[in-house]
Amino acid sequence: xxxxxxxxxxxxxxxxxxxxxxxxxxxxxxxxxxxxxxxxxxxxxxxxxxxxxxxxxxxxxxxxxxxxxxxxxxxxxxxxxxxxxxxxxxxxxxxxxxxxxxxxxxxxxxxxxxxxxxxxxxxxxxxxxxxxxxxxxxxxxxxxxxxxxxxxxxxxxxxxxxxxxxxxxxxxxxxxxxxxxxxxxxxxxxxxxxxxxxxxxxxxxxxxxxxxxxxxxxxxxxxxxxxxxxxxxxxxxxxxxxxxxxxxxxxxxxxxxxxxxxxxxxxxxxxxxxxxxxxxxxxxxxxxxxxxxxxxxxxxxxxxxxxxxxxxxxxxxxxxxxxxxxxxxxxxxxxxxxxxxxxxxxxxxxxxxxxxxxxxxxxxxxxxxxxxxxxxxxxxxxxxxx
Amino acid sequence: xxxxxxxxxxxxxxxxxxxxxxxxxxxxxxxxxxxxxxxxxxxxxxxxxxxxxxxxxxxxxxxxxxxxxxxxxxxxxxxxxxxxxxxxxxxxxxxxxxxxxxxxxxxxxxxxxxxxxxxxxxxxxxxxxxxxxxxxxxxxxxxxxxxxxxxxxxxxxxxxxxxxxxxxxxxxxxxxxxxxxxxxxxxxxxxxxxxxxxxxxxxxxxxxxxxxxxxxxxxxxxxxxxxxxxxxxxxxxxxxxxxxxxxxxxxxxxxxxxxxxxxxxxxxxxxxxxxxxxxxxxxxxxxxxxxxxxxxxxxxxxxxxxxxxx
Amino acid sequence: xxxxxxxxxxxxxxxxxxxxxxxxxxxxxxxxxxxxxxxxxxxxxxxxxxxxxxxxxxxxxxxxxxxxxxxxxxxxxxxxxxxxxxxxxxxxxxxxxxxxxxxxxxxxxxxxxxxxxxxxxxxxxxxxxxxxxxxxxxxxxxxxxxxxxxxxxxxxxxxxxxxxxxxxxxxxxxxxxxxxxxxxxxxxxxxxxxxxxxxxxxxxxxxxxxxxxxxxxxxxxxxxxxxxxxxxxxxxxxxxxxxxxxxxxxxxxxxxxxxxxxxxxxxxxxxxxxxxxxxxxxxxxxxxxxxxxxxxxxxxxxxxxxxxxxxxxxxxxxxxxxxxxxxxxxxxxxxxxxxxxxxxxxxxxxxxx
Lengths: 386, 310, 353
Description:
The complex is a heterotrimer. By secondary structure, chain B is mainly alpha-helical. Chain B is 73% helix and 0% strand. Chain B has one domain (2-113, 145-296): ABC transporter involved in vitamin B12 uptake, BtuC (Orthogonal Bundle), CATH 1.10.3470. Chain B is built from 13 helices and no strands. In chain B, helix 1 (2-34) crosses helix 10. Chain C is mostly helical. Chain C is built from 13 helices and 2 strands. Chains in contact: A-B, A-C, B-C. At the B-C interface, helix 4, helix 10 and helix 12 of B face strand 1, helix 6, helix 11 and helix 13 of C.
């Protein structure tokens, strides 16, 4: 019995293999033959048949689905914008839902060997895979979002989402009636902690009485858990919420319960028209446009970029008309200051939860402190899960 | 004490809300399993139903039609499974798993034009009753489907324990050979049970997309189908225990979120483990007595029966 | 009206032809699907079946993808043949990554690594996987708890534990508090088999595991006992085969294999610990096990097909602009058709009036 099975599965396997080879031999080969020799020579760059004068091929790798109405959606919006901006001069591709880890490396390598000369990786978990691939494709430019390691052909970029959180906080501080604010948070990483702090500081700048609490859903995207977290905080008396997750569930929960919330990463007003105070969005178009232009001009350089309100990468949009005038004014004032480049969010005197002064008056937080922020400011309740 | 009660009411309401889709799906799976068929494709059925319900409600504006569409979607997926398992005699575990994966992929596919859309969030409250202090918000502030779930539970309990058809259903699950010998069409009984299971999972999926988080996102069930499967075993295949299990699971989830919001200093991931650990602990306690399980598990669960070969 | 009639003996022709039939049907439906989506069907099929294996690197990537699938699936095959319905290989894989990765983090304090360190890491990973599986076995043994349920719950627990470790105590001190461990020094990584590719020693382990699994199941008395216990529990009991021993053996074996898969991922293609070590290998392996008819050699081929679909699905996105959802549709279709076609081995189709 086992003998039969073994033979049959062996033969079956061979048949499957043979048939797949046969099938595709009859099929159309979509790409011209790339180098059949194994990539033993790391310098083996693409041998695509298209001459160098063709459109610049730009590729995007996403961690989530383009329809997530949040993080990935914002990136894809940026991609579509540069397609419109540059027309025939570029040709874009994207691969969505690529998990961090072993699979990512394969995807980047494949895109690089398909003739893409500019590749964007849109989550920090792609950092190591991109570095490995960048080494093997020195003439391809890599751009990694939210990371911290660079290479001669790998630049890193990020957006100052904390500025958006700060502006939202200003509105929240003026809107809240219970003085209790809430954040639906994903993972206790510096970016999220920064945003929680910024939200609190923004609110405190117009209303020193507010407190903030955070509930962690241990996921970037899980509508049901995000809703549960939002409902929990609403049940605890929170009446303005913000999120650091990728779905509009928080806003929907707020709409249901008659409290307020913000959209995050993209304009989410449609999901909760009455509850929506504004959306802290990321606009990737300015950065993507600049980067593509620099590649087309031949002036691309590696480095670190961190753009915010000043460069039009961050904004608080679609402010609800029902927001009181003085709140809007306060927010616009802060926005104008940020647009001038003033670092008003994390500027001293800054006190942490324990009362210790982490920034004296007159000093601004430097990049290191911002990038590795691991403390809560005064006014945030709870402790950072260590 | 006041603050505790103040916090407790919304937490209990949220628990009932969170437990409803689990309950609905588990009821269907329970009937399924009572007839001897193990359908591991709950996740796939729920997703297919979710997109079906969402699409219909988007187009028509009617939530009722959406739920109906969800139930039909679930039934269609279940019918596919039933034909393979009951007529073609394929392995139940593998077929169920294939359904899970295929349903997830198919729903994601079909749902592409709907991603990023949302439906109006509805807030439903029973007029007078929901104003009663404490009890009101906890029990009477829910979507009609929550109450339908409870009615379904009661009907199922009656059906299984007090009706003749229920007895025949159980017979098909305990000893299909005997049922067949007595002249019952085991295949059709199981087919009906599987379809019912699909309809219930369909209602659960539609609930997620229409009420819980009124939007469509691929994979939005996030493992609830698997939890529902777990619940049927956990509940020893008794409807009221399913309710208890769903509330327990939902309750511990809400509890850990509440504790986080109150500032407890335990890492959030450890807190997030609590519902799963609680399920394991309770299950261990329930299953300790081997006779209990043997008494309750449908004896031919997971094994195919071919009337032509009998 | 079509009727299914049992054959007097399993059809040998169909047992060869059924996988072919399944692949053909999947291909046909795939072509129709591509056409409906407005893409050239042949181009679509080529992307799925030819592109991933066009060059040597493609083959090595398939190998990298196959490794955890084979290991977990062989473990499942042993379990399912003994009627132990564990579905928790994903959790055991994560536990193995934690165990092996943790060992590397402990050893990688300036030393050079080398074969001994790697061996220790592999052993730690396997032991961790065994321990995780042991939890399921213990609960079933002492408390009678259903292993499907427990193994599934433990998957979520393992994933959360990993997330906690890389966000907290094990995160890279130089890493700006990002939730990942430091990169393992090269002395602690598995050696690669083909220069400049990612195919590492783990692939060899996977093949060896499949062969060992086959020998165990078909040639050893212990394997025989397990399978009798699975097919005819009463007969097994009568013959004195211990059900308890079977439970522990199968779960510990599958735990060791899945744990090995986890540590191979950690010290192989990934090279560090991060919160997502596996895109669901432990669950995909269930399909691999069944499509391989619970036979370790068959699993080698079914893991090849699954890996092909995974990679083909990725390529379909970047080459043809097809959505990611198409991979799941293909995999589900393949399994459905295979299950359906397998029916023809034991039954024949007859017209009856």
